[in-house]
Write a structure and sequence with these properties.
about 120 residues, mainly beta, seven-stranded mixed sheet, four-stranded antiparallel sheet, about 50% strand, globular
Length: about 120
């Protein structure tokens, strides 16, 4: 069975950067998309970015477009999300998710496997 785990969060100053990692374990057979979401009590769950399994196509939400990079290491099956420059409103729990669906969608119901989250706190 597929397992997803995030890492790399922490307390970071505004204007700095963070690079989150998402590790997939188990059998990745059939996985098509990897995505990053974030969640806060005020805003709920927000889609941020998606990358296809081969790492050849990416999609970004307007909230992070221009200061976000999603990338994938196909050998290690690690999916990265880098944010810079960080803003205080980027403070959230960040989640990684994997989907077997063949088409892109920002809907979280689209994703079959979820990590437990990694907290990013942006200080100012």
């Amino acid at each position: 069975q597929v397992q997803v785990e995030e890492s790399g969060g922490g307390v970071v100053q505004a204007g700095g950067s963070v690079r989150l990692s998402c590790t997939v374990s188990g059998s990745p057979a059939g996985l098509r998309l990897m995505a990053w979401y974030r969640q806060t009590p005020d805003n709920g769950r927000e889609w941020l970015a998606t990358i296809n399994w081969g790492g050849t196509a990416t999609w970004y939400a307007d909230s992070v477009k221009g200061r976000s990079t999603i990338a994938k290491d196909n050998g290690s099956m690690i999916t990265y999300l880098q944010l810079n420059p960080l803003k205080p409103e980027d403070t959230a729990m960040y989640y990684c998710a994997a989907s077997r669906a063949p088409r892109f969608s920002p809907n979280p119901d689209h994703y079959n496997y979820w990590g437990r989250g990694s907290q990013v706190t942006v200080s100012s």
